[in-house]
Amino acid sequence: MSNPQPLEEEEYDMSGARLALTLCVTKAREGSEEDLVALERMFQQLGFESTIKRDPTAQQFQEEMEKFQQAIDARKDFVSCAFVVLMAHGREGYLKGMDEQMVELEDLFEVLNNKNCQALRAKPKVYIMQACRGERRDSGETVGGDNIEMITKDSLQTIPTYTDTLHVYSTVEGYISYRHDEEGSYFIQTLVDVFTNRKGPILELLTEVTRRMAEAELVQEGRARKVNPQVESTLRKRLYLQ
Predict the structure, then answer these.
(1) Most buried of 87, 119, 217, 237 (most Cβ within 10 A)?
(2) pLDDT tier for residue 239 given thresholds of 50, 70 and 90
């Protein structure tokens, strides 16, 4: 019996414009400027046209996303992908603007979906969230091994509204996200280091980010804490940044 030939995975076409929008509340978030510097370096190295907006209110989070979408759809050139970085205090499903008001993440995600942003239809849309998702703290568990099962689905013949999207949260649902007052957040700094220094499909890179964060010991209030990102993907193809 002959061995089946491996299926050739498709890749997203990254030959066009790469666009990035960073919305960051710096107020009462010491170390966030270090994250902005790291992100700007990463976007420059990866060939992105990058825009940074500091200290948006809750309403401005929504307005800046809509301006980003309108600018993308107005472009005459080919657009390959969009990255959106959202950094603020928050709780599960919400970010807090500089005005202390809340904006719903789902409302921000919808702006660039396949229905609302035609230029990004079937193109990768990556969201990176550096924000708390609750008040819980993880002290870690001792394990002897792990067993990770990958679940895949057959490709669909039509494009659903919410495909081609990658959500990368700095922490899992319900937990705090940590940020150093001088060095920035461990999540953003680790992500930038991996994305700029390693090659491979983005989900593989994010596995490396998760591994590094899982191995790190963060000290908060004098106690060792663990934190790891959470990745939610509806990407249909491999996404290479390098």
Answers:
(1) 87
(2) very high
Catalytic residue selected from 24, 81, 89, 117: 89
Q: How many CB atoms lie within 10 A of CB 194?
A: 21
- Give the distance from CA 177 to its chain's centroid: 14
Distance of alpha carbon 163 from alpha carbon 160, whole angstroms: 6
Structure tokens at 242: 């390098």
Backbone angles phi, psi at 51, to 5 degrees: -125, 135
As a whole number of angstroms, the distance between CA 242 and CA 235 comes to 17
Residue 167 annotated in active site: no
Residues 241, 12: Cα–Cα separation, whole Å: 10
**What Cα–Cα distance (Å) separates residue 127 from each residue in 17, 22, 58?**
17, 10, 17
Q: In the numeric block, which tokens belong to residue 206?
A: 């994010």
Is the pLDDT confidence value at 47 over 90?
Answer: yes
Quickly name the fold that domain 17-136+159-233 has.
Rossmann fold (3.40.50)
d(CA 9, CA 72): 27
Task: Count CB atoms within 10 A of the CB of residue 11.
Answer: 11
| Cβ–Cβ < 8 Å for 52, 22 | yes
Q: What is the mean pLDDT of residues 176-185?
A: 73
Between CA 45 and CA 67 the distance in angstroms is 25
Task: Give bridge partners of residue 94 from the DSSP assignment.
Answer: 91, 104
Please report which confidence band the pLDDT of residue 91 belongs to, taking 50, 70 and 90 as the band edges.
Answer: confident
The region of weakest confidence among 159-168, 190-199, 223-232 is 223-232
- Does residue 132 have an active-site annotation? yes
Read off the pLDDT of each residue in 151-171 and give the average, rounded to a whole number.
76
